[in-house]
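Quick illustration for those who missed Monday's session on complexes.
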Amino acid sequence: APHHDRGPGTSREYSPNANIQVPWPQGTECIARYTFKGTSEQDLPFNKGDVLTIIVVTKDPNWYKAKNTAGREGTIPANYVQKREGVKSGGKLSLMPWFHGKITRDQAERLLNPPETGLFLVRESTNFPGDYTLCVSCEGKVEHYRIIYAKGKLTIDEEGYFENLMQLVEHYSKDADGLCTRLIKPKVEEGTVAAQDEFSRSGWSLNRKDLKLDQVIGKGEFGDVMVGDYRGTKVAVKCIKNDATAQAFIAEASVMTQLRHDNLVQLLGVIVEENGSLYIVTEFMAKGCLVDYLRSRGRTVIDGDALLHFALNVCEAMAYLEANNFVHRDLAARNVLVSDDSIAKVSDFGLTKEASSTQDAAKLPVKWTSPEALREKRFSTKSDVWSYGILLWELYSFGRVPYPKIPLKEVVPRVENGYKMGCPDGCPDVVYNLMTECWNLDPGVRPSFHKLKERLQDISQGIGKRH
Ligand code: ADP
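Prediction with adenosine-5'-diphosphate bound:
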């Protein structure tokens, strides 16, 4: 039988060559690469795949005091775990790094040089638009196989049919099945990084075997959200089956690896399957989405303190994004989730970008997006501040749809003329003032999230005193 991931020796058993390493700071998250049973009382035993957080840096760089997701603490050997880092956004992360788009037959042959049997790529067919060509290096020659798109499926030999290119490549990687060779090594497109490799390298890749999916709890735009169990922790899982859509969600997941805040829905990891399915595993938010929460409970259950608490939760997350130069672009109460202990957390980082990048204004949520972002695609932290003002209005109206009674196509012209929504029933003036400041047509005049947070904290203390 093969070795069972027994893991390397720890420094209690032997002393590795005085490895000078920078100690990991407190709060560093790690993923276990091997199972560690522990040898003393103080040890924290863990299984391969467990997520651990460093809580104390010890004098010995080979050992850390850490905490597991259940809250148990103990000592762990550093060489059994891998530190998690943010996924690098430099190269383009791709699920199909072997896909080269529209290149010619000659270019493909040059790319597969020097020859190496099993080296392959896929290109778009030049002669038959809509079809693809699989190019494989085989004993010094390059073979070109036409992939026909027929009745919604892909096939080379009209015997084996596949839903997408990833499934086709997966199949011929296992077995030549009539080709000159099986597919062994992808010729990766320049500037592209295989998403699978990058998620593993940075410590965010989870094992499908460790994940149990239970039932569907939500319908996302592109796939189901399910509740599940990852090694004893209740989790939410976004399941994306379509390879093209999965590619879009890779961006969302890679943004999430770079962010960590108590008021942001935390990513636990991702699973990328050979067939193109993608699973994004996050913490489970038992009370669901904030709009539904507000609508279903209403003002009889949710008091002013609770509203202010949610407003602050969201503001703190946004102040964190502001400080780190991330722009959310889709802030709205529907994209805020509520945890079991009633903490609001911002989610849905699908459109989140580092501040510098630009974006096509595909399907923007008109009622939440600032005028300058709608008109000139000028997204910034200040356009997030505008959306935050709308979110405050949603909060204090217990989940009403903004701009009630105004037809959608009249919203933008009226807002650009200076129209602002009125104060929701029962909303304190101090909070309404914040909303109107967020809705200043001049983004430069809108308050920062940092400032908003201070103002909300003052309000919350003021209200506390009066009661
Ligand atoms: P999409 O962005 O694809 O539209 P969402 O992220 O909005 O998908 O998820 C759809 C629904 O699934 C949400 O409204 C919510 O009810 C549920 N949901 C999503 N993530 C979680 C989570 N982490 N915990 C609990 N429920 C969730």
